[in-house]
């Protein structure tokens, strides 16, 4: 089975549903980041090209990114995959479609995990609770468990804590909004091909994966 996973940005120590989903579908979990790092560390031609671009501060062209995914699919034809971190635009989605069509390995479905309102609020609360020590910027505190109690002073050195601008409410919400704005056209691209299975993210990663599988069965009827 060949599956693309569109999911919300990672949030603190929160596990994603990808592991549960990959296990239930019995497919390897692959991420563009991991594939890219493997090419770079093994010094393949694609890796060398990517490293040069990254080092000179350039964005990787879509053709190069698609080639990295293609290289994996060619080598692992029967295994299938759950692909994370790609595509990141409708143009990349189109390139991926073409690649998989050429290889005779089209996608079976695309899971679109969207944050439910209450889950979004929970993540905003968690992320805006991050505090940094004025004495030492490496002393960072994140409220990992509910209720989110923000400590009054640094637990390491007793220094005063403050909230960085990037952890402010507007910044955090802005990042979630721009991420959603980036994903929406990709989701629509797959919806037009009737591949999209939309699932609300609320509850544990395991719950989300279970609901995603139920939604997939429903979608295929
Ligand atoms: Zn400190």
From TrEMBL:
It comes from Streptacidiphilus fuscans. AMP binds at residues 37, 58-60, 92, 164, 175. It catalyses: AMP + ATP = 2 ADP. Its EC number is 2.7.4.3. It comes from the Bacteria. ATP binds at residues 130, 203. InterPro entries: Adenylat/UMP-CMP_kin (IPR000850), P-loop_NTPase (IPR027417). One of its GO terms (cellular component) is cytoplasm. This is Adenylate kinase. One of its GO terms (molecular function) is ATP binding. Keywords: ATP-binding, Cytoplasm, Kinase, Nucleotide biosynthesis, Nucleotide-binding, Transferase. Consists of three domains, a large central CORE domain and two small peripheral domains, NMPbind and LID, which undergo movements during catalysis. The LID domain closes over the site of phosphoryl transfer upon ATP binding. Assembling and dissambling the active center during each catalytic cycle provides an effective means to prevent ATP hydrolysis. The gene is adk.
């Amino acid at each position: 089975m060949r599956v693309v996973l569109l999911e919300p940005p990672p949030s603190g120590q929160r596990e994603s549903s990808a592991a549960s989903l990959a296990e239930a579908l019995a497919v390897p979990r692959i991420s563009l980041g991991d594939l890219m790092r493997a090419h770079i560390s093994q010094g393949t031609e694609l890796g060398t090209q990517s490293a040069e671009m990254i080092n000179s501060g350039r964005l990787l062209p879509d053709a190069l990114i698609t080639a990295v995914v293609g290289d994996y699919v060619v080598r692992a034809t029967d295994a299938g995959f759950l692909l994370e971190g790609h595509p990141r635009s409708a143009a990349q989605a189109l390139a991926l479609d073409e690649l998989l069509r050429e290889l005779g390995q089209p996608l079976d479905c695309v899971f679109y995990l969207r944050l439910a309102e209450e889950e979004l609020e929970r993540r905003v609360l968690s992320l805006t609770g991050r505090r940094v020590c004025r004495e030492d910027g490496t002393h960072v505190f994140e409220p990992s468990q509910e209720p989110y109690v923000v400590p009054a002073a640094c637990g390491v050195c007793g220094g005063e804590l403050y909230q960085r601008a990037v952890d402010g409410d507007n910044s955090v919400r802005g990042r979630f909004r721009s991420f959603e704005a980036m994903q929406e056209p990709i989701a629509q691209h797959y919806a037009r091909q009737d591949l999209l299975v939309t699932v609300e993210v609320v509850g544990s990663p395991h719950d989300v994966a279970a609901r995603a599988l139920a939604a997939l069965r429903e979608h295929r009827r």
